[in-house]
Amino acid sequence: MNIDLSLMPVTLDVAHVGLGALSLLLIIIVVIMAMFRSSSNTNESTVEPNKEQVTPSDKVDESAIKQNLLKETTPEAALQLLMLLQQDARLIDFVHEDLAGFSDSDVGAAARVVHEGSRKVLQQVFNFEAIRSEDEESRITLVQGFNASENRLTGNVTGEAPFTGTLIHKGWRVNEVSLPQLAKEHDVYVVAPAEVEL
Amino acid sequence: MKYSIGIDLGTTNSVISYVELGSIDEQSSQDEPVTGLLEIAQLTSVGNVEKKKQLPSFLYLPHDAEITDAETSLPWGTQTSKITGVLARELGAKTPIRLVSSAKSWLSHGGVDRKSNFLPLNSPEEVNTVSPLQASIDYLAHLKNAWNSEFPEDSFDEQEVIITIPASFDPAARDLTAEAARAIGVRHLTLLEEPQAAVYSWVKSMGDNWRDQVSVGDVILVVDIGGGTTDLSLVAVTEEEGNLILNRIAVGDHILLGGDNMDLALAYQVRAKLAKEGKNLQPWQVQALTHGCRSAKEKMLIDPALDAVPLVVPSRGSKLLGATLRSELTRVEIEQTLVNGFFPEATIDEHPVEKPRAALTQIGLPYAQDAGITRHIAGFLSKQAGATDSLGFDSQDEFIKPSAILFNGGSLKAPVLANRLLSIINGWLTEAGEDKARLLDGADLDLAVAKGAAYFGFVKQGNGVRIRGGLASAYYIGVESSMPAVPGMDAPVEALCLAPFGMEEGTEAEVSDREFGLIVGQPVRFKFFGSTVRRDDVSGTLLDFWSPDELEELPEIQANLTADGRKEGEVVPVRLAAKVTEIGTLMVEAIPREGDQRWQVEFDVRD
What we know:
The structure holds 2 protein chains of 2 kinds. Chain A is mainly α. Chain A folds into 3 domains: 13-72, no CATH class; 74-126 and 180-198, no CATH class; 132-170, no CATH class. Chain A has helices spanning 14-40, 48-54, 59-66, 75-89, 91-96, 104-125, and strands at residues 126-130, 139-142, 163-166, 172-177, 181-182. The longest helix of chain A is centred in the first third of the chain and has 27 residues, at 14-40. Chain A is extended and about 70 Å long. Chain B folds into 4 domains: 3-192, 2-Layer Sandwich (Nucleotidyltransferase, domain 5); 213-257 and 358-450, ATPase, nucleotide binding domain (Nucleotidyltransferase, domain 5); 259-342, Alpha-Beta Complex (Actin, Chain A, domain 4); 474-602, no CATH class. In chain B, a hairpin with a 2-residue loop joins strand 15 and strand 16. Chain B has a 9-stranded antiparallel sheet. In chain B, strands 1, 2, 3, 6, 12 and 13 form a 6-stranded mixed sheet that branches. By secondary structure, chain B is an alpha+beta fold. Chain A binds chain B through residues 80, 83, 87, 90, 93-94, 96-97, 99, 102, 105-110, 112-113, 116, 124, 178, 180-187, 193, 195, 197, and chain B through 41, 44-50, 68, 70-73, 75, 94, 310, 312, 314, 316, 318-322, 324-326.
């Protein structure tokens, strides 16, 4: 999804560039939502509600959805990750709890379980690398032809590259994903089996 | 044969490492052989297969209704009735009656029949129990399959395989390990003592510089604290024709004491702390706590800035809040429990305290009763005071004084523990007016054994220095002395030396001047002894007296003359001969006066 901003006509006003960026963002959201929907395995109507959010944006993007430029993600990997996060970090249990009525120390104890476990899972499955090596809050310059999917411009986005601005977040890139292999008949929808002690 | 494969078949974890032998042919000595660590595919949760550097040495025997065959798929097939690795450990934590653990400790336990199916101990009748030997076969088979699926071109059976064993393994345990390897089809096998493997790993990591690190007259003490056992060895440095030679001159007793004991000790301490707050833990919580203590220990011992690590035991149900137990482990607690409990201040005269066990002890592993590793080391150094006498080193009176120390095992990665141990040993040396021992470092304490084992395969081909060792013990059989019978007294037993100390691989010794009458078809048993201190006895030496700590009685051995053309009941005069095989196992044979038949005398016999 590379968009070279320098290709835009210079006469185009700021508002349109902003709108373009917004629509891009919305598409990303739609993709993510679609991924989660398919992973939750519900057969409800597909992406309709999200489409409403998309309508105010450019027509080009609308047709992109119609032309099926989007790819479907398989729920398997998402469910597998969910299983690992439940198994080692009790994430589903934690998120399903109502925190009201519990003291901070209770929440803290549970948070340690979730944090320690999630960390272990993420370290095992993904190999992360910061996209930018500069310190956050320092001034950096993006030269022409920079990678727009790795570097997101915000704020007073005008003019042409090189862009100079403050690095707010250094970004993360996953270099390697190593999910466990699955047995062919394994039911990934069971993210945590019921446990019965005899 | 393209690779040398080193297998650290551990009590709690197994590791497999390799060296590509072809990669070093006709190259200058500077070139490093291609080495690697095999990532072992294994079930990590039901239906999930992951590759890990370690294969937890656990075997889980699932109930038919527990897991479907399809859920136990591995790259090379399904593990239907037996699950090994991470999943076995995880399932077993919740269903201990179906979990086989510490098979290696059972393999070296002379008090049980190691080929009979009794593991898991005290499991219900419907569980299809396995023998310690079978469990070892299963672990090795898993490693073999993992190798073959990773290297389909270079079949495991065709490679040089080196399996490490504790230096203190008795002949029967060595034999059983070799038998397990044969059972999975290994053709080129060698057994290597773990402390020696650690030394090889150190030599390899030093490259040619190892010669600058030690000099003639040095005595290196190897302290290997594994998960389940502590293994001690002494290696002396001598010179021959200008070349430095390493000689393994002594090994310690079998001490069932290791890192797992430390985790358990910490968990019990936290349990006591929680009990004071009125919270009593259930068994599953203690288990989770032990797990938590292990990672807390590792974090804190490696990071000196941490003062406390919180411990949480999550609830078992889906309600996490309110039901999660919280406690913490402070640096003071960890250091007190581990430093004072396992590495207590001790003088060189303080040796392990062994109380006689209560008469009605359940059958179980002979865990060390004294957790003080420093006392075990003091006992070992004192017992081996004469280990260097024959090498022409300065005579040592009270105890042997090491001049260098090599550590191995994950527990000793912690600077607190390593420094403590070093300072206690150096305290003994200083008091005796000797220089302090220096620490040889540079080895990877977790993986050194497997790496050193694979490197040994390379050394075996004539590259680099080879440690001289041979038998670390002299072996004797008990012979009833021909004294007139005295009512109420057993006929005194004399010990006849079969295999002398230091007997080398591939050599044979025959007791020529003594014959035994064996009856065809009737098994005959002999008492069997080992001694790690009597270095001067030769084959055929007859002892009519020895002090109790000189000779250790081992499980009986049995000679069984099959008919083979002879008449049942016929008495055949035989001589006994001992042989150390190239693999590294001891073999005792009965040779009849006539004919060229030979009968093997069996170790590990039971009723």
